[in-house]
Design goal:
Layout (H helix, E strand, L loop, with lengths): L2 H6 E2 L2 E5 L2 E9 H7 E2 L10 H17 L8 E4 L4 E4 L2 E4 L5 E5 L1 H23 L3 H15 L2 E7 L4 H14 L5 H7 L4 H12 L6 E2 L13 E2 H13 L19 H15 L15 H18 L3 H7 L3 H4 L13 E2 L4 E2 L5 H22 L1
Parallel strand pairs: 4-8, 5-9, 10-11
Antiparallel strand pairs: 1-7, 2-3, 3-9, 5-8, 6-7, 12-13
């Protein structure tokens, strides 16, 4: 079989969807690169930030040895593919035009560029074993199987409408599902591990990221993860990059985190999940407590376990009711409840109020 046949002939199955012919097929990324184009009249411009995010996801997955998955890409052939006896054949000079997956394709190409540069650098430094490891990653990406749907007979206006529909109807994966199934993020993994240890002691919402007043769970996996990031890194916004638990062996993170959440049982009222009466079930308060531990560790140069025990001092000063003076910065007299408790500013103010009470009691004991 000649090189031209390899490039122009593909295998797949043809279906009809909404009166339009679709070819469902799969090919290696290296082959796809030579067969597709971007029509700027149909596609939007590349978002560099989005491409970088996907590229980093790919590289992180390769470095950790974890598989990664993409949904099928969508293309339009503009009548440039014919059915032949042994498959499908591209009309000479014709390409397929991408309708969905532009950022993913660009990110794979970008990841290959990063790896090629890395490989050259290793070779120039004489690190041939390391260069070989990088070469294997390059080969893996070039051979990565791309599943796709190719619309065979769409007009350009129909392509524009499909592009609009695909991007209007798309929904990102629910954060609760990510917390359940993602094995690439270390904080997510630690959170699931700790939640598993606490399953007999407290109710933890596994799927939803936000808890309503009617939910009987005290917290959720999503909130627990934010607590861990605040506790070990002092980050209250979106965490980027690899985990870096300050002043702590990463292997001890689950044990320390478990102690933090178990402290709630002693610290909070018996009906701690009653959000109408108490603030203990609110995400902003829980994250503020975790951030307080971070502050105590840094301020007094003490172990995390000691700082966590110091939280129990708050039991003497706080009722955990909405009307408690400690939460005056968030209290809404009209509703009789605290509001906007999960903003970064509110969390910082709550943590400061907790810290001042704890440090005051600590100074008295000294």
């Amino acid at each position: 079989m000649s090189t031209m046949e390899l490039i122009t002939k593909i295998q797949g199955k043809e279906f009809t969807q909404f009166g339009k012919k679709i070819l469902v097929t799969q090919m290696k990324f290296s082959l796809l690169e030579s067969l597709f184009e971007v029509d700027e009249e149909v596609q939007r411009k590349i978002d560099p930030g989005r491409r970088t995010k996907i590229r980093n996801f790919i590289l992180d997955s390769l470095n950790s040895g974890q598989p990664f998955h993409f949904s099928p890409f969508v293309f339009s052939a503009r009548k440039g593919i014919n059915t032949v006896e042994d498959g499908f054949e591209f009309v000479p000079g014709c390409k397929i035009y991408i309708l969905d997956g532009q950022h993913r394709i660009s990110a794979i190409s970008s990841a290959l560029g990063v790896l090629k540069t890395e490989k050259e650098g290793k070779e120039e430094m004489g690190q041939y074993e390391e260069a070989e490891k990088v070469r294997k990653k390059i080969d893996f990406l070039r051979g990565y199987p791309i599943s796709m749907q190719i619309y065979l007979d769409l007009g350009k206006e129909e392509e524009k409408q499909m592009f609009t529909d695909l991007n209007t109807e798309r929904r990102e994966a629910h954060v609760g599902l990510i917390m359940q199934y993602d094995y690439r993020d270390k904080y997510t993994e630690w959170t699931r591990q700790v939640a598993g240890r606490l399953i007999e002691e407290m109710e933890i919402e596994q799927k939803r990221s936000r808890l309503t007043n009617q939910n009987s769970a005290i917290t959720s996996l999503t909130i627990m993860k934010r607590c861990l990031i605040a506790l070990f890194e002092g980050i209250l916004s979106v965490k980027k990059g690899d985990p870096y638990p300050r002043g702590c062996d990463p292997n001890k993170v689950p044990d320390i985190a478990e102690s933090f959440f178990r402290t709630w049982i002693q610290l909070f009222p018996k009906k701690m999940a009653d959000r109408n009466k108490y603030v203990s079930g609110l995400s902003g308060i829980q994250i503020a407590l975790a951030y307080t531990v971070f502050i105590l560790v840094r301020k007094y140069s003490i172990p995390h376990q000691e700082a966590i025990k110091m939280l129990l001092i708050l039991k003497k000063y706080c009722s955990w009711e909405h009307t408690d003076p400690l939460f005056l910065h968030m209290y809404n007299p009209e509703t009789g409840k605290i509001t906007n408790h999960s903003s970064v500013t509110a969390i910082q103010k709550s943590a400061k109020a907790f810290f001042l009470k704890i440090s005051s009691e600590r100074d008295k004991e000294r």
